[in-house]
Every structure is written in structure tokens, then in C-alpha cells.
Fold this sequence. Notes:
The chain is α/β, with parallel strands linked by helices and 396 residues long. It has 16 helices and 13 strands.
Amino acid sequence: MRILEIIASADPASGGPIEGLLRHAEIWTGAGHVCEAATLDLPDAPFLAGLPIRVHALGSLPPGASRLRPHRRYGYQPGFVPWLKQHLTGYDAVIVNGLWNYATFGARQALAGSPVPYFVFSHGMMDPWFSRTRPLNHALKQAFWLVNEGPLLNRARAVLFTTDEERIVSRGVFRPYRVREAVVGYGTSDVAGDPEAQIAAFRQALPALGDRPFLLFLSRLHRKKGCDLLVEAFTGIAAAHPDLDLVMAGPDPDTLRPELEAIAAAAGLAGRLHWPGLIGGDVKWGAFRACRAFVLPSHQENFGVAVAEALACGRPVLISDRVNIWREIAAGSAGLVAPDTRAGTRDLLARFLALGPAAEAAMAAAARPVFLDHFHVRQAADRLLQTIETGIRAPA
């Protein structure tokens, strides 16, 4: 089977969807299928080098940021739709990843009237959190829904969700809502490599941390992720745990770091927070393996690839109940869960640090079995492929 994945960008810094796409593609390719991607990226984008699948980077205009050119902010690329229309029939199925960007808009234009069956992976982009926090954006999206996203999803063979929770909360956020739903799960690859060498690589990359124990945040520095809640919560428990540091790893697309650093500095803790930026490879895996716990007090998280990666490394995870996989983690005793509030995040840290060595070790021991049972990418890739095969046979 030949599968085309449509996604706005293949940049790893853009978040979890591209990571999941690449891991699925690796498994499908190993089983004899062909999987390619079409993106809005410029062909010479450096992050395209070394990707495990063929990427058709169809951008010709540099990314626009001017409010005077909203089509550029939306991701408009003039060659995207013509390429899709010319090449779609060379594939057995198409997966459209994400909503509210020109890749989605172009996909609807190209797929309208096409005989090629397609599926839409919403990746949490219909979560009501966005509607509550950005009502003006929600109104604009509702308008787009009527002319683009709604028709695209309504005509898909299936709209794909990672969890039942995501499927349920997405219903009725935008109207009319008439879609064929399918819960396919999600996952990430297992961790590999020499643990000691990876820990050494991480410690070497962050010499200011030394050998101190630490809690780890690894994601985009973004308000949605609850970064401010975590930094404020850490300042509240730091005095009682003077040997503990906090590592805030990840890209900073919205320049949030100075504000977070100011919170730490005001509490006299600037030296106990560390900001390595985007990390990958052995450095990233070493960060997971070396931390006492991974923390993500997100306000909205459809899956949380980094949460699954932490579990794969056998580390406890401390998350909010807005991370949609929290039920599996709580049921497996692989971490702690709290509301996505200041009080909830501080309670999350306080409860973990009060566990004691035996209870903390038991939580760490439970982490990897939860990953293998629920979040290994092979299971998710198999379910997704079965859904595609069933959808292809179903009437349009």
C-alpha cells in the first residue's frame, strides 16, 4: 500500500505529530508499505536531511510573520495544491495531519472529488481548551470550519483520535459535526542505546547542573504546556528541597523563557533552573534517564509523546489531568495526576517529593510496563493501518 501523509511541517521542533508520523512510517516501511509526506516546508530546510521517509517539501515562499499578509501566516504555498492534484492518484490512501493551516486547506481543495480515500488525524486540535482560552480565535475557526475543516472531516473515511477522551471532548466544539470517528491510539518508539553513556552525554551538555538530582520538563516552552505553573510550583517547594534542580528543556518559539527566568530570579533560584533548549539524541535520552521524574502540567495535551518517552525510560511522570493519557498512567501507578492549576501543580510536586525512596522506586518500576502495554508505537501503527484498510473498503 502507498500512503501519503499531509502535514504542515516535518520540523521536529513543531511538536508530536511529526514524531508520530515518522515512527509509524518506519514500521509500515519495514512491512513493505510505501509512506511519503507532503509538507509546506522549503526544500532546503536543514531538518529534512536524514529523515527516514521521502518528504515532498513543496514550499517556495519563506514563512511569513507579517499581520499584513495573513495568507503567509496561514502557511500559503502556491505550489502545494497543484502538486497534490497531480500526484494524489499515485497513492492508495491519504492521511491529513492537523487542522487550521494551509496544508489542511490545500488538502481539502485537492481531495474534493478525488477517488483517493483519505483520513484526518486531528491531533487534539478540536480540544475545547482552545475555545475557552481564545474565544475570538474560536469564532474565526468556526467560520473556517463551515468552509474548510468541516467539509474535509465530514467526507473523510474516518477522523482519527488518539484516545476516547479526545474523541468525546471534541464533539460539538465546532458545528455542524458529522464525522466518522475512529480511536487508533498513539505511541512512540522504544528507547535504545547505552543508558550510562546517554546520562553522561546529558550531564556533559549541561555542566552547570553537575551531578545534582533534578526534575525534567521537556517540551515547547509555551503557556499551553503549563511552564509558568511548573516554575512557580518549583519556587514554592525549592526551599524544602535544596538539593533539587529543575531542567526546562525545549524550544522557545514564543520567547517565554525571559518571563520564566524572571520568576525564578525573583525567588532567588536562578542558579537552580537550567535551559538547554531543544535537545535530541543521546542528550535527550540521557535527560530522561537521569531525572527523578518528568513533569508536564499542561492545560491541553492530546497525547504527550515526551510523557511516553519518559515512561519508556522507566521514569515516573507527574502530569495534569488535561494530558489525555492520564487515566492509563494513574491506573498503572506510573505517576501522579493533578489539576492544571497553580495549586494542583504545587501539590503534584509536593506529593511526589514526599513519597520516600521505596514508593518512588516502585513508581519508577511501574513506568516501563505502562509504556509497553499502552504506548509503544508498534501497537498504534498496527491499529492505524487496520483502520485505513477498513476505511478503504468502506463506501465513500
